[in-house]
Amino acid sequence: MDSNSNIVVVTGFGPFRQYLVNSSWEAVKLPVVYQKAKEQVFKIWKTLQPLLTVHVGLASSAKAIIILEQCGKNKGYQEMDACGFHPEGDCCMLDGPEKIESTINMKTLWKNISVEGIDIIFSRDAGRYICDYTYYASLYYGNGRAAFIHVPPLSKLVTVDLLGKALQTIILEMLKQCGEEREYDGSCKKKMGIS
């Protein structure tokens, strides 16, 4: 699949457990439902053919930490989604490999980036729930050209503004890894929902 080098897609998720406002949905939203999220991801890759798709999800246990996820796992999805379902065989893709690594080197990104007011860490386990499932599907459909960022819940310390700036910094660094160093003017930032 050829990528459209002018498009980067960023997704977030809707309400999750006790979080009526999911901090990741302030940008864009996917349903917290395995099948629907997978269908949306497929549609993104098929219709937009982006250079990169960046998914943003809520890490409810994180306080003021952003987590850069390196890979998605195919199996182990036993927890029920928002509609009370889990995937057939507890698996994302019946014919898929056990795990898929992102073409973005998250460890390098983590070492080279800092955002004032929030810590950033590197992970190889996105949690075997909708986030990991969505990430795996995107890596599968996008031949590894996807990334996943877990963000903490919104709080007095972690504001929408802080998260927006942190995500902007992280995504711009990802694009540098993709070889897409470009000048991002205000109109592009506005389209990305970044001020």
UniProtKB/TrEMBL annotation:
Presence of the UniProt keyword Glycoprotein in the record: no
GO MF, any single term: pyroglutamyl-peptidase activity
Keywords annotated in UniProt: Cytoplasm, Hydrolase, Protease, Thiol protease
InterPro entries named in the record: Peptidase_C15, Peptidase_C15-like, Peptidase_C15-like_sf
GO BP terms: proteolysis
Keyword RNA-binding tagged: no
Domain of life, per lineage: Eukaryota
Any one cellular-component term (Gene Ontology): cytosol
Pfam family, one: Peptidase_C15
Family recorded in the similarity comment: Belongs to the peptidase C15 family.
Protein's recorded name: Pyroglutamyl-peptidase I like
UniProt source species: Accipiter nisus (Eurasian sparrowhawk)
